């Protein structure tokens, strides 16, 4: 996280107080001298001093003398900054993970669409072959979720899409409910695909 210069200076002064370079009850060099030390403008030092004052680390007299009030408050200021920095780092990491997930999702959908588009040409490719299975009107799978049917565990295949009229549900959610006349797009080995058709359309489907 890129800090404003004045905040970085405030934290550095707080660290110097914690390290007892500046002791409680003693005066810190005037703003002009601090500006010279940190090679910044007096205005930047003024902003840094303001942060320290607001956090009860120092006091500033009317004569603009800077007095160290509390080593403990200086430590609290540093701890607070570390917490903010950690939270910011986690936020950045989360945003990066979201971007990566979105990229993976787009790629997954693209590949799935390509599989469906070229399904006729892939019939002779092993070990995985896409197949559409029409759910029979009498199937007791109708009204049940994919999670309830547990098709992957029962048949060793994977549902990659559901055709529902003109709509195509890519990578359906486990809680999606099957409806009458749905067509399942399934991938798996040829022997497994045959088992799926039987499994889905028997009257005693679980």
TrEMBL record:
The keyword Coiled coil applies. Residues 3-71 form the HTH gntR-type domain. One of its GO terms (molecular function) is monoatomic cation transmembrane transporter activity. The keyword DNA damage does not apply. Keywords: Coiled coil, DNA-binding, Transcription, Transcription regulation. InterPro entries: RCK_C (IPR006037), RCK_C_sf (IPR036721), Trk_Ktr_HKT_K-transport (IPR050721), Tscrpt_reg_HTH_GntR (IPR000524), WH-like_DNA-bd_sf (IPR036388), WH_DNA-bd_sf (IPR036390). Residues 117-202 form the RCK C-terminal domain. It comes from the Bacteria. One of its GO terms (biological process) is potassium ion transport. Residues 87-114 form a coiled coil. This is Regulatory protein, gntR family. It comes from Propionispira arboris.
